[in-house]
């Protein structure tokens, strides 16, 4: 579940419990603001980071969040990765669908992240963990 080198990512935040949710929110927002993304895009990307972090706390207890700015001559994007070594997701397609929740909540987090971001993919293995990668193109 760890195919990447964390040092490639400018931002890394450990997720160890619910007290880390506001810490992720403020650190992620402060970092994203330095990219020059619009206020609206920063709000969208930060919302995605908070939803994914909340899922880690609820379903996997701990994990990590990574962020980096991807720049080519033609476009810029913010990439967000949230990964954990928790229980994994049995049916990813079902989990991405609206209103599916094993936590007794709305089941709108993952479909919301998908809608907010331009790219979205989940890699998950039962008993091994989950990696969610999302990307948002910015101006
Ligand atoms: N990191 C994770 N590890 C294991 N299961 C997960 C993880 N993230 C999501 N899931 C599973 O996918 C389901 C859907 O996630 P989603 O965020 O859409 O909804 P929710 O967290 O249940 O509710 P909401 O986000 O609306 O409060 C979860 O109920 C859970 O079963
Ligand atoms: Mg959720």
Supply database-style keywords.
139 residues, alpha+beta, Heat Shock Protein 90, 5-stranded antiparallel β-sheet, 4 helices, 5 strands, 35% helix, globular, binds adenosine-5'-triphosphate, binds magnesium ion
Can you offer a commentary on this structure?
- It is a single chain.
- The chain has 139 residues and is α+β, with helices and mostly antiparallel strands.
- It has one domain (6-138): 2-Layer Sandwich (Heat Shock Protein 90), CATH 3.30.565.
- Helices cover 35% and strands 29% of the residues.
- The chain is built from 4 helices and 5 strands, in the order βααββααββ.
- The protein has helices at residues 20-33, 39-60, 92-96, 109-116, and strands at residues 11-15, 63-71, 76-84, 119-125, 129-138.
- The protein has a 5-stranded antiparallel beta sheet, covered by helices on one side.
- Helix 1 packs antiparallel against helix 2.
- The protein is globular.
- The mean pLDDT is 95.
- Magnesium ion (MG) binds next to helix 2.
Short description:
35% of the residues lie in helices and 29% in strands.
Helix content: 25-40%
Q: Strand tally, please?
A: 5
Please give the domain count.
1
Separation of the first and last Cα atoms = 31 Å
- Mean model confidence by pLDDT: 95
CATH topology: Heat Shock Protein 90
Question: Helical stretch count?
Answer: 4
List the helices and strands and how they pair.
Elements: E1 11-15, H1 20-33, H2 39-60, E2 63-71, E3 76-84, H3 92-96, H4 109-116, E4 119-125, E5 129-138
Antiparallel strand pairs: 1-2, 2-3, 3-5, 4-5
Helix pairs in contact: 1-2, 2-4
